[in-house]
């Protein structure tokens, strides 16, 4: 079948040479997933067909792939070039190598299969785990660590950090805001566009604004990040589409992948990869503000430790005495620990709990736990 559609994206590579070099041989399918959103018409159909059954695509000739996707060999060639490949042979070899590695790693679940109403939970769990594993792997492949480094340096030296996001992205932003606060970084998370714009207008040179949107097309997030950038703040975008409007206006772009499943479209399935990238960014900031971060985390941990101890000692008649003893200094705070390092005892000296030192920096998700 020969397609007669005019595809405006056919003449332009949606994946640049630097990105191709960074992804290398491990990022073939990640490259296709990331670039598919920029394609239209016949080229988009080719991308969807390749992603729906990569192993079959790797076995197919260029004519067979064209027939199965309802396009033409010429369109397949244009698709390969748009994805940064020299030709179909390179694409086919790359897909075959990557699917072979996936099988060796144990990713045997068909993540393209729809979850059915009658599927047992064991099958659903396997499907979700396989999809998330693939999304994490693709995110690690897509992520430019030099961009993470730039973002970490900017945040570490910022006097103020604003985080913008709507709906599910707002939840991810709040997680990051809380984590940064725990290590002494002045950060605020905004989901309301009016409040966010007002806060963005007060930013300036030396401040940082982080916009989170999987599609990169959420208007409110784009407006807030644009306002921050117009005031001189360094802007960072966390998105699944490196050529999206949000990414285009940002100084620094952090790219994530997603793997949609039934009842979990891309925007929802992107949450775990987003949290992983933000965990990495948070740790990178903590590394660059080591002494300040350690001191801040120790102080914040101590501030809430009494409430945690009260929960552990609930119902014990010696609880108040033990708490008083701890606060009076009988429980030692070690120089390399973030919480009380001595055992908690009641008034009679009976040990009620083991020491629980926390060394190093917790991840953003661990820091949010209470």
UniProtKB/TrEMBL annotation:
Record-linked Gene3D superfamilies: Glucose-6-phosphate isomerase like protein, domain 1, Winged helix-like DNA-binding domain superfamily/Winged helix DNA-binding domain
SUPFAM superfamilies recorded: Homeodomain-like (SSF46689), SIS domain (SSF53697)
GO biological process: carbohydrate derivative metabolic process
Region (Disordered): 300-370
A Pfam family recorded for this sequence: HTH_6
Hydrolase recorded as keyword: no
Record domain SIS: where: 151-291
GO molecular function (one): DNA binding
Keywords, ordered alphabetically: DNA-binding, Transcription, Transcription regulation
UniProt keyword annotation of Transcription present: yes
PANTHER family documented for this protein: GLUCOKINASE, HTH-TYPE TRANSCRIPTIONAL REGULATOR HEXR-RELATED
Name of protein: Transcriptional regulator, RpiR family
Lineage summary: Bacteria, Bacillati, Actinomycetota, Actinomycetes, Micromonosporales
